[in-house]
C-alpha cells in the first residue's frame, strides 16, 4: 500500500508540473504581448512597460517560467518602479484591479466554494446512489422507468434553468424558503445553512443523474457475477447480497467520478455561484475575465487544476481501500 501511495503522489506531482507549464505557456507565452493582456485595455504604454518589467517578460521564456515556479514554492519580489513588493509563497502574483495578492484573494473566496461543493456532494451522492440502487433492484418495473426518466431530465436540463425553476417553485410559489442571500458561516450558521440549501439542492440534482446511471449499471454488472450467484445458491438474502457485496463492487467507479466532480466544483461552480450570488472562486474567475485581470485568471485555473489532481489522488486511495486488488497490481 505504501508503494502504491508513493506512486500516486509522484504521478500527481508530475501532473501538477505539466499543468503549470501548460498554463504558463497558454497565458504568458502564446498571447504574444502578455503585458498588455495582464495590465488591461485601459493601461497606457508606460504602464504596460512597467508590467512587462515587473513580470520579467523581457527575459528568456525558461527564465520567466523559473521565476513563476519560484513564486509558487519560495515566494517572489515584484518591483513597482518605486518600491519592492514581496509576495509570500505560494505566490500567484498580484491582481492589477485590486492590488491584492491573488493567493489571498482566492483564499478569501475558498470557504464559500468549499461549502457549496461539500454540501452539493452530499446531495448528489445520496440522491444519485440511492436512486441508482433502487433502479437496479426494481429493474423492469415502473419504478425503474420513473427513475430513468428523472435521470434523463436532470442530465438534459442546464443547471441555471434547474436553479431558476427551483427558486420559482420553492421560494415564489410554495414559499418554503426565502430567496437565497449568501451569509458567511461565521456570521450566522443557521442562516447560512438555510440560504445554502437551494444551491446545494440545485447542484446536487444536476450532478446526481450521472451517479444514478453509473450506480445502476455497476450494480447490475456486479449482480451478474459468479460469486453473487453462489451467495444466492446458499440462500443469502437479496438485501444482504446488495448491501454487503453488490454495492461494494459498484462503489469504485462512483468514487472515481465523485473525485473528479468534487475537484471541478472546488475550482469554481461558475453558473451556480453566479445564479445564487455566492462570492466564491467561480465569481472571482468571472470578475478576472471581465476586467482582463490575467494573474487572477491564471491563479484560479491553477487552483482548479490542483483541486482536481488532489481529489483524484484521494479517490485512488479510496479506490484501493474499496478494492484491495488495485493496490496489489
Number of strands: 2
Using only C-alpha atoms, the radius of gyration works out to: 24 Å
User: Uncertain runs with pLDDT below 50, 5 residues or more?
Assistant: none
Strand order of the largest sheet: 1-2
**Top-tier CATH class of the largest domain:** Mainly Alpha
What level of helicity do the residues show? over 70%
CATH architectural arrangement of the largest domain: Orthogonal Bundle
Within CATH, the superfamily of the largest domain carries the name: MetI-like
What is the fold named in CATH at topology level of the largest domain? Answer: MetI-like fold
N- and C-termini, Cα separation = 10 Å
Run of helices and strands = HHHHEEHHHHHHHHHH
β content, as a range? under 5%
Average pLDDT number: 81
Number of helices: 14
Which descriptor suits the 3D outline? globular
Structural class: mainly alpha
How does this model look, in words?
With 329 residues, the protein is an all-alpha fold. It folds into two domains: 16-87, no CATH class; 107-328, MetI-like (MetI-like fold). Helices cover 75% and strands 2% of the residues. The protein is built from 14 helices and two strands, in the order ααααββαααααααααα. The protein has helices at residues 2-29, 34-39, 45-55, 61-74, 102-137, 142-156, 159-173, 189-223, 226-233, 238-266, 270-276, 281-290, 294-322, 324-328; strands at 76-79, 84-87. Strands 1-2 form a two-stranded antiparallel sheet. β1 and β2 form a beta hairpin. α1 (2-29) packs across α4 (61-74) and α6 packs across α8 (189-223). The longest helix is centred in the middle third of the chain and has 36 residues, at 102-137. It is globular, with a radius of gyration of 24 Å.
Amino acid at each position: 500500500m505504501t508503494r502504491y501511495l508513493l506512486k500516486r503522489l509522484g504521478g500527481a506531482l508530475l501532473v501538477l508540473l505539466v499543468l503549470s507549464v501548460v498554463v504558463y505557456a497558454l497565458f504568458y507565452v502564446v498571447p504574444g504581448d502578455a503585458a498588455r493582456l495582464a495590465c488591461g485595455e485601459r493601461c497606457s504604454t508606460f504602464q504596460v512597460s512597467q508590467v512587462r518589467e515587473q513580470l520579467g517578460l523581457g527575459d528568456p521564456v525558461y527564465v520567466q517560467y523559473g521565476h513563476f515556479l519560484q513564486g509558487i514554492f519560495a515566494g517572489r519580489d515584484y518591483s513597482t518602479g518605486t518600491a519592492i513588493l514581496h509576495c509570500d509563497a505560494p505566490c500567484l502574483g498580484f491582481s492589477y484591479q485590486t492590488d491584492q495578492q491573488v493567493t489571498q484573494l482566492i483564499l478569501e473566496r475558498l470557504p464559500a466554494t468549499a461549502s457549496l461543493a461539500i454540501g452539493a456532494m452530499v446531495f448528489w451522492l445520496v440522491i444519485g446512489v440511492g436512486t441508482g440502487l433502487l433502479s437496479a433492484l426494481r429493474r423492469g418495473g415502473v419504478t425503474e422507468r420513473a427513475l430513468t426518466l428523472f435521470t434523463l431530465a436532470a442530465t438534459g436540463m442546464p443547471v441555471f434553468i434547474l436553479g431558476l425553476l427551483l427558486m420559482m417553485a420553492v421560494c415564489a410559489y410554495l414559499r418554503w424558503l426565502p430567496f437565497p442571500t449568501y451569509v458567511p458561516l461565521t456570521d450566522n450558521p443557521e442562516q447560512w445553512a438555510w440560504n445554502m440549501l437551494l444551491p446545494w439542492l440545485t447542484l446536487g440534482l444536476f450532478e446526481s443523474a450521472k451517479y444514478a446511471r453509473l450506480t445502476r449499471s455497476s450494480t447490475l454488472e456486479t449482480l451478474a457475477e459468479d460469486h453473487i450467484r453462489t451467495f444466492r445458491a446458499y440462500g443469502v438474502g437479496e438485501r444482504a447480497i446488495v448491501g454487503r457485496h453488490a454495492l461494494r463492487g459498484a462503489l469504485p467507479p462512483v468514487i472515481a467520478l465523485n473525485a473528479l466532480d468534487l475537484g471541478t466544483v472546488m475550482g469554481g461552480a461558475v453558473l451556480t455561484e453566479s445564479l445564487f450570488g455566492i462570492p466564491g472562486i467561480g465569481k472571482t474567475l468571472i470578475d478576472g475575465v471581465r476586467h482582463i485581470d490575467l494573474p487572477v485568471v491564471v491563479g484560479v485555473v491553477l487552483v482548479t487544476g490542483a483541486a482536481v489532481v488532489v481529489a483524484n489522488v484521494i479517490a485512488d486511495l479510496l479506490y484501493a481501500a474499496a478494492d484491495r486488488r488495485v493496490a496489489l497490481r
